[in-house]
Design goal:
By secondary structure, the protein is an alpha/beta fold. The protein has 3 domains: 3-242, Glutamine Phosphoribosylpyrophosphate, subunit 1, domain 1; 245-448, Rossmann fold; 450-592, Glucose-6-phosphate isomerase like protein, domain 1 (Rossmann fold, 3-Layer(aba) Sandwich), CATH 3.40.50. The chain has 18 helices and 27 strands. The longest helix is centred in the last third of the chain and has 22 residues, at 427-448. Bound molecules: 5-amino-5-deoxy-1-O-phosphono-D-mannitol. 5-amino-5-deoxy-1-O-phosphono-D-mannitol binds at residues 301-304, 348-350, 353, 356, 399-401, 488, 597, 600-601. Homodimer. The active site is at 2 (nucleophile), 599 (for fru-6p isomerization activity). It is an enzyme of class 2 (transferase).
Length: 604
């Protein structure tokens, strides 16, 4: 949610920052801005409503400088506009701030500043930070920023420039990510490594409550109270090419197609054939502790919540531990009973989602043990949890999640197998699941070869104004996720229901103009699912089934290969990613950057 990038060194800064912004655009894309320290002193800023390309078009030819900061915005306070775009400068144009996060006490601070005569140029909460820094009487820039942040409540990742201190950029973090990129006589600051990876793979991730001063040939980190901290640069696992589109038209398409190798990666090095189990290095949970777990509560948002639902059913099925998944955003506000024998699991692709992070912090405050199932290594949630399983899907750039969903579910299957084999899962069942897991990459590839057929179906269903998705038990989270995917990128209204609930209300919606996608695995519930399709047919509803064999009641069937019953949901979701993709494409949608959304929701 909002991307920040900054550079200090010897190179021409504007092209570097614009390139960084392009790479961060998935974090927010309603307006963008850039400020540089001009060669003859002073700060020069350009801002534009719209995408980074709009900003690029406005940057003058002569915009030379070697230090600058930039921002791409996802609006919270104030509509997308030139004025509300960051960086925010003070009245004299000496201080510039880019901010990711939310200032909770912005109205109160704004009122005080206005009473003191400050004239605001935007409606944003972020602008208060600029004026507080500008009005500080402290001597150093670091001290000015520190003084300002002392009275700011809320979350922030910020980068600050000051015309009187042209040799440095000061950054600070509280709740919104900030990484430093360490180069040869040049330094970067960004909210994500994506912005700097084509220049350096050496990074330092700031902790909450940490600040940094970047100079061209040096950096130092310290707490907001001024105590020096040690920061040893780490090498980023991924190469710059992992953030490219790799010949595909969209990131979403690339990421759907990458799933066979992504699943292979999450399995790699973890399977133990001798004991028909898996090794999960970062779990920090010994066998005795695992045996003592009485419940599992999984917390995530959006797609990760859906992956958690499948995870819960895997854990309950394979380890026989009662488990459920709940939206983290709801959990944290209902004063939940925190039970010492419950294992809590936070799920997040980005590892940044504020609602999930806040739920983890609340749980830890109450003494709970919390594990993470996270994709981004070293992210806030990964660091806040007591251990966990990395999902290893690789960078996911498209706002909608595809390969991360699949890999998260596979990571849950590994965890469930691990817990099951410590408890009562037999060697034979362990072996059965391992064989199923090993078959997944090839089976996913087989599904991907049906893309042309799915594209034709999508062209047909793209005319629908509204669609119903149904599934039973394991199929229900698949229906939920498929319906979320469709609405996120095609803007077609979609509902997801357990097939068993149809006749309790939603059946009233069924008519020829409301097609249904039915998840129909070949399992013990096959006949029940067929009965639900009968009910829909009897009301002249059209049906697209995702099934292991042709379904006569359906108008169309997409066939998926059969795996073990427990692992079938992983495969059944894949053709529906393609269906959502091609439906959105047929409707001419901006697939990688759907309206109103951003990838990392770092605000409440
Ligand atoms: O990074 P996270 O997994 O924590 O993100 C949670 C949701 O915001 C995210 O899954 C969202 O639902 C996606 N747009 C799904 O495609």
């Amino acid at each position: 949610m909002c991307g920040i990038v900054g550079y200090i060194g010897k190179r021409d800064v504007a092209p570097l920052l614009l390139e960084g912004l392009q790479r961060l655009e998935y974090r927010g894309y309603d307006s963008a801005g850039i400020v540089i320290a001009g060669k003859s002193g002073g700060l020069k800023a350009v801002k534009a409503k719209g995408r980074v390309r709009e900003l690029e078009a406005r940057v003058p030819k002569r915009f030379a400088g070697t230090t600058g900061i930039a921002h791409t915005r996802w609006a919270t306070h104030g509509a997308p506009s030139d004025e509300n775009a960051h960086p925010h400068l003070d009245t004299e144009g000496k201080v510039a701030v880019v901010h990711n996060g939310i200032v909770d006490n912005a109205s109160e601070l704004r009122a005080k500043l206005e009473a003191d005569g400050v004239v605001f140029a935007s409606e944003t909460d972020s602008e208060v930070i600029t004026h507080l820094i500008a009005r500080s009487q402290a001597v150093s820039l670091e001290e000015k920023v520190r003084e300002a942040l002392k009275i700011v409540e809320g979350t922030y990742g910020i980068a600050v420039m000051h015309a009187d201190f042209p040799d440095r950029i000061v950054a600070a973090r509280n709740g919104s990510p900030v990484v430093l990129g360490i180069g040869e006589k040049e330094m970067f600051v960004a909210s994500d490594v994506a912005a700097l990876i084509s220049h350096t793979r050496q990074v330092v991730t700031l902790d909450d409550g940490e600040m940094a001063t970047l100079k061209a040939d040096d950096f130092r980190t310290y707490t907001t109270s001024g105590t020096r901290t040690t920061a040893t640069p780490e090498t980023v696992e991924w190469e710059a090419a992992s953030y490219d589109m790799g010949g595909h038209d969209t990131y979403m398409h690339k990421e759907i197609c990458e799933q066979p190798e992504a699943v292979d990666r999450v399995l790699r090095g973890r399977i133990d054939d001798k004991f028909s189990t898996v090794h999960l290095g970062g779990l920090n949970l010994d066998a005795r502790e695992a045996r003592g777990i009485r419940r599992v509560k999984i917390l995530g948002c959006g797609t990760s919540y859906h992956a958690g639902m499948i995870g819960a059913s895997l854990i309950e099925g394979l380890a026989r531990i009662p488990a459920d998944s709940e939206p983290a955003s709801e959990f944290r506000y209902r004063n939940p009973v925190v039970d010492p024998d419950t294992l809590y699991i936070a799920v997040s692709q980005s590892g940044e989602t504020y609602d999930v992070l806040a739920a983890v912090q609340e749980l830890k405050r109450k003494g709970a043990r919390v594990l993470g199932v996270v994709n981004v290594v070293g992210s806030a949630i990964a660091r806040e949890t007591d251990g966990g399983v990395y999902v290893h899907a690789g960078p996911e750039v498209c706002v909608v999640s595809t390969k991360c969903f699949t890999n998260t579910v596979v990571a849950f299957a590994l965890l469930a197998l691990h817990l099951g084999r410590i408890r009562d899962l037999s060697v034979a069942d362990g072996k059965r699941i391992i064989e199923g897991l090993r078959a997944l990459p090839e089976q996913i590839q087989e599904i991907l070869t049906q893309e042309e057929d799915i594209k034709k179906l999508a062209a047909d269903y793209a005319e629908a104004k509204s669609m119903m998705f149904i599934g039973r038990v394991r199929g229900y989270p698949v229906a939920l996720e498929a319906s979320l995917k469709l609405k996120e990128i095609s803007y077609i209204h979609a509902e997801a229901y357990p097939a068993s609930e149809l006749k309790h209300g939603p059946l009233a919606l069924i008519e020829p103009a409301m097609p249904t996608v039915a998840i129909v695995p070949d399992d013990s519930l096959l006949e029940k699912n067929r009965a639900a399709m009968e009910e829909i047919k009897a009301r002249s509803g059209r049906i697209l089934a995702v099934a292991h064999r042709e379904q006569e009641k359906a108008d169309h069937t997409i066939l998926v290969p059969k795996n073990e019953d427990e692992l079938d949901p992983i495969l059944m979701g894949i053709p529906l990613q393609l269906l959502a993709y091609h439906t959105a494409l047929a409707l001419g949608r901006d697939i990688d950057k759907p309206r109103n959304l951003a990838k990392s929701v770092t605000v409440e």
